[in-house]
């Protein structure tokens, strides 16, 4: 976590300040920066009204005029959706967040982690509060996930989470809506949640509560621990294609036959990368 001197003067969107790193991550994932006529425009974040407390924190941390409003409307998902919106119009403030990495207009595929020094766990927690989830699966297993359309964001989360959990994830877009969904279960979810949602951090209250709740999970004695996944290398892929037989490849590569069958199918159908010669 980046060191921050609480006695130092507050500078708007200093991303080494854990609070601003969180706000910036949240806005990158779930905010919207829009242009108006001339130099007009606005930065907004609309969330469920149950989380209005976080928008008041945004307002408190912003040394420019901003507003928090509420509305109730009908949506595709609910007949009565109660939301709250934080709005900031100041040109100077918009210029700062734009230069840090929040583009005007549609941004979901092009956002990326800041290129300046920033407090990493707080930034990632902001992203997860906006576009992720923490809690339990239907089977009572801890889960922590993050969804993004941005390749850079998905890759960064995988990279950072590996440092904390030792677990490697390979980001891949799902076929339904072409977004990345990075998910951690069990001990890995617990480790990430404990690291990101530390005592006194700025966060959505219900996600902070879930992060604490999943720490109570204990692996049942009869639940085996899966071995680390082996990544497919280009050498493996070339040998798999040469043999063209999942059973033979399973013996030659010391892998499961089903794994070899699926890998061969993905390469043959273009679902996976073909190795270079």
Written account of the structure:
- The two termini are 43 Å apart.
- Helix content is 40%, strand content 17%.
- With 277 residues, it is α+β, with helices and mostly antiparallel strands.
- The strands form 2 sheets. The chain has a 4-stranded antiparallel β-sheet. The chain has a 3-stranded antiparallel β-sheet with strand order 5-6-7.
- The protein contains 10 helices and 7 strands.
Keywords:
alpha+beta; 4-stranded antiparallel beta sheet; globular
Give the distance, in angstroms, between the N- and C-terminal Cα atoms. Answer: 43 Å
Mean pLDDT: 90
Number of strands: 7
Main beta sheet: 4 strands, antiparallel
User: Percent range for helical residues?
Assistant: 40-55%
Low-confidence stretches: none
Strand content: 15-25%
Biggest sheet strand line-up: 1-2-4-3
Using the CA coordinates, give the radius of gyration: 22 Å
Oligomer: single chain
Would you list the SSEs in sequence order as H and E? HEEHEEHHEEHEHHHHH
DSSP helical segment count: 10
Shape verdict: globular
Structural class: alpha+beta
């Amino acid at each position: 976590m980046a060191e921050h001197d609480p006695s130092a003067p507050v500078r708007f969107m200093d991303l080494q300040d854990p609070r601003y790193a969180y706000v910036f991550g949240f806005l990158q994932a779930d905010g919207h920066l829009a242009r108006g006529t001339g130099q007009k425009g606005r930065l907004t974040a609309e969330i469920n009204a149950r989380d209005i407390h976080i928008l008041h924190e945004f307002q408190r941390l912003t040394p420019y005029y901003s507003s928090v409003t509420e509305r109730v409307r009908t949506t595709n998902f609910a007949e009565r959706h109660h939301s709250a919106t934080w709005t900031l119009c100041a040109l100077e403030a918009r210029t700062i967040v734009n230069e840090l990495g929040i583009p005007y207009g549609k941004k979901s595929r092009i956002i990326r982690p800041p290129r300046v020094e920033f407090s990493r766990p707080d930034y990632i927690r902001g992203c997860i509060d906006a576009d992720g989830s923490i809690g339990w699966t239907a089977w009572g297993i801890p889960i922590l996930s993050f969804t993004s359309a941005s390749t850079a964001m998905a890759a960064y989360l995988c990279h950072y989470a590996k440092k904390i959990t030792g677990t490697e994830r390979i980001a891949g877009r799902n076929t339904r809506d072409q977004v990345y969904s990075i998910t951690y279960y069990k001990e890995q979810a617990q480790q990430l949640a404990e690291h990101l949602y530390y005592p006194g951090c700025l966060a959505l209250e219900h996600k902070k509560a879930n992060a604490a709740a999943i720490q109570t999970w204990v692996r049942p004695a009869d639940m085996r621990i899966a071995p680390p996944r082996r990544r497919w290398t280009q050498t493996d892929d070339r040998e798999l294609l040469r043999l063209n037989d999942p059973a033979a490849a399973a013996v030659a590569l010391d892998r499961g036959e089903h794994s070899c069958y699926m890998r061969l199918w993905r390469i043959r159908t273009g679902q996976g990368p073909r190795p270079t010669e």
